[in-house]
Amino acid sequence: MTERRWRTEAIEWAKTLGGAFLAYVVFTTVAFAQFRIPSESMVPHLEVGDRVTVSKFAYGYSRHSLPFNAGFLLPPSQHRLFGSLPRRGDVVVFIHPRTGDTMIKRLIGLPGDVIQVIDGELHINGERAALSEPVTLLRRVDPEGREYAERMEETLPSGVTHSIHNLTDGGHFDAFGPYTVPEGQLFFMGDNRDNSLDSRWDGMGAVPIENLIGRAELVYATAMCRQDPTVACPMPRWMRPLHH
């Protein structure tokens, strides 16, 4: 192969790879991204190791919409391009306001909402979120271990129903508030109510709207349930939408 031909082919390969990389950047900035669940805070809907697709266009775009954490190189801004507020009950991926980590939680409170937890029961603007009768089960804890949990269906005042886990009565976050969500911020909680460091915790608090990355839409990868008749399998999650 002549040197001239080698250079020509090298240039063509560089163009192809550069074009593919640019398409990837555009796609993961404008359309969808993927996120791996790192903790048990969203049990029972999401287990450690699950992977979800995230729609970035659901709430508009901010500097945190850029891939590779490039948004941290840009100055903060209070505005989102094509921005819209999430709905109560949405499962949202966002940037932790203090640590910069990528998080996933359920949106509970919008700006101006009054959030209170009384004896482990959620109240929004003075209205109690309805709960079904609890079902006690023994579940496997990641990475090793077992725990008893009460699973209930919680219905928010907006009508959204989802499952939650209660691990103990009188837990650290079973009494909270009343707390008014500040303007321009959002209040998040995990579905695993006694095992979630969320907006009830001083180490996180409310989250600026700017920090939203997108709405978790679909669980596209899950771990197989290990056969053990003494332990309940996780909820069916594969290819099930997180919102109805």
Structure, described:
The protein is mainly β and 244 residues long. It has 2 domains: 1-30; 31-221, Umud Fragment, subunit A (Ribbon). The chain has one helix at 3-30; strands spanning 32-36, 51-55, 91-95, 102-109, 114-118, 121-124, 127-128, 130-131, 135-140, 146-155, 161-166, 176-180, 185-189, 207-208, 212-221. The strands form 3 sheets. Strands 1-2-15-3-4-13-14 form a 7-stranded antiparallel beta sheet. The longest helix is centred in the first third of the chain and has 28 residues, at 3-30. The protein starts with a helix and ends in a 23-residue tail after the last strand. Mean pLDDT is 84; it is low at 15-30.
Write the topology of this structure.
Blueprint: H1 3-30, E1 32-36, E2 51-55, E3 91-95, E4 102-109, E5 114-118, E6 121-124, E7 127-128, E8 130-131, E9 135-140, E10 146-155, E11 161-166, E12 176-180, E13 185-189, E14 207-208, E15 212-221
Antiparallel strand pairs: 1-2, 2-15, 3-4, 3-15, 4-13, 5-6, 5-12, 6-7, 8-10, 9-10, 10-11, 13-14
**What structural class should be given to the helix and strand makeup?**
mainly beta
Tell me the major beta sheet. 7 strands, antiparallel
**Average pLDDT value?**
84
The outline comes out as: globular
Name of the CATH superfamily of the largest domain: Umud Fragment, subunit A
Sheet with the most strands: spatial strand order: 1-2-15-3-4-13-14
Number of beta strands: 15
Helix content: 10-25%
Name given to the CATH architecture of the largest domain: Ribbon
Are there runs of 5+ residues with pLDDT below 50, and where?
15-30
Per the CATH scheme, the topology name of the largest domain is Umud Fragment, subunit A
How many helices? The count is: 1
Order of helices and strands: HEEEEEEEEEEEEEEE
Count of the separate structural domains: 2
Distance separating the two termini: 59 Å
Strand content of the residues, in percent? Answer: 25-35%
User: Could you name the CATH class of the largest domain?
Assistant: Mainly Beta
Using only C-alpha atoms, the radius of gyration works out to 21 Å
